[in-house]
Amino acid sequence: MGSYTGDTPVVIVGAGLAGLTTALALGTYGIQTVLIERRSESSQHPRADGFTARTVEIFRSFGIGPDILPETAPSFKTQRTRVMSLTGQWFEELAWNDQEKNEDTAIPKQPEWSPYQGSSTPQDQVEPILMQRVIDLGVDVRMGHELVGLAQNDKGVTVTIKNSKDGAVYFIKSSYLVAADGHRSAIRETLAIPRKGHGPVNSVQSVLFRAPELSPYLKKGFKQFTIDQPDLKAFMIAYQDERLVLHLPNDRVWNDELIQKAILQSIGPEKVTLEVLATSRWDMSAWIADEFSRGRVFLVGDAAHSLPPNRGGYGANTGIADGHNLAWKLAQVLQGVSDDRLLSSYQAERLPVAWLRHDQIFARSDYKTLQREASTSGSSALGQSALPDAAVEFGQIYRSSGVIGADESLPEALTPDLWKGQPGTRLPHCWIELGEESLSTLQLHSGDWVVLSEDPEWAGIVKQVQANLGVQAQFIHVQQSEDVSIRFSDAFGVSQRGCSLVRPDGHIAWKLAEVDGDPKAALEEAWKTVSCYKG
């Protein structure tokens, strides 16, 4: 049966972006965690090639600064062009989204939704950063260890682990298990959780290579290239460190000779020094698990939703947000603040997000031709119009026991300016004065419960509620200069005496637009409700 190695509050299986984000958050909250990863080291392939501003907001709240995860310049624009070959004929720039394609319906320059830009740092460079941070936080990371069995009851989960180095088998008992073990999740399969969605999209052979002579061609600003030749249809991505990835259709057996020929054909007439770094085959698919939790087991990332590559970055970024959403809830329950009913809000909030992003992928030009097929596979993508990127990235709403005032009559997503601080949506961005600094409301939020108001009397109220409930909270007295473009009262939809209660994941749990009656009683009752307060 193997040896017993002790108990731990949380075991995470899978050290990809979703698993690492969950571990990062739990480590920050001081929750003892074991992270299991069957690989002995991270993949060389870049995989996800960019992170949204919302993901940067999440990482900044956990101390991942710009020196570690740099942002793109405000003027940065990912560009795609159709070419015969990289050094040969260039045909045309391709529209990044449907709004760009049709100038008559193009949206005006977007307002300032976030204090941050996205990051173009590739996944293979981000994962080691996160890994080192979780190790520094005391997370027990076990590379080269694989889950080979699990059992759960109403008290906890027992996982059986195999060390691939020496074959030793051992087991760990935990209160909760987080499955971050990818789209072929063994944990999801063990639990027999079915999936729906478009299903298989394509199979791809990827080649990571370097060719220094191509640098002049990449300085034109284009990052992605559709290779369009009569006998070769491929897709190439250029990274800032001079690496390139060529995605080839998996319509043949790609041996080394054929791969080299395809690379040179995609590059064109320029003679280059070619260094092939790695190759891999992978399947594009679109699947959403019917359940994101079963008992004491929670699915995050690709284990919960497999989404094909797309221009909105809905794959990896969605998984990162899963871990961010789940971790604070696990922490509150394990620390005895909240009843375990709070954990049911994870599926209630994240499952609709996954479906909306699935359907938005197939409503956009990259995959629009597959819409009709998607409608027969459990998806509602057929006929759905593409929402603005800002609505999908910043403006999706959570409806659950963790929110007061977000009913089914509200739309699934809007741009942040239209929400006006609606409970269930992300904390709006606006600039406020703190001492001599001008900071965004999002830069002040660092994983605690937060109450914001322009009325300083809330400081004393928050202290009283904090003492009564034994919860950690921060009060922010909002003061703004006269010249700010976004007023707090407009962005948050509250009066000068009103307040907003923000959850540890940066979503608004409740707001008091106007003070009518006893504000302390109102805040205390709301806090108890949205936190499933154990008392």
Automatic annotation (TrEMBL):
Q: Decide whether keyword Secreted is in the record.
A: no
The UniProt annotation puts the region (Disordered) at 104-124
- UniProt cross-references to InterPro entries, sorted A to Z: FAD-bd, FAD/NAD-bd_sf, RIFMO-like
Cofactors: FAD
Q: Name one Pfam family in it.
A: Rng_hyd_C
Please list the GO terms describing molecular function.
FAD binding; oxidoreductase activity, acting on paired donors, with incorporation or reduction of molecular oxygen, NAD(P)H as one donor, and incorporation of one atom of oxygen
Q: Which keywords, in A-to-Z order, does the entry hold?
A: FAD, Flavoprotein, Monooxygenase, Oxidoreductase
Q: Which residues form the FAD-binding domain?
A: 7-356
Q: PANTHER family under this entry? A: BINDING MONOOXYGENASE, PUTATIVE (JCVI)-RELATED (PTHR43004:SF19), TRK SYSTEM POTASSIUM UPTAKE PROTEIN (PTHR43004)
| Name of the molecule in the record | 2,4-dichlorophenol 6-monooxygenase
Per the UniProt record, the source organism is Penicillium brasilianum
The gene behind this protein is tfdB
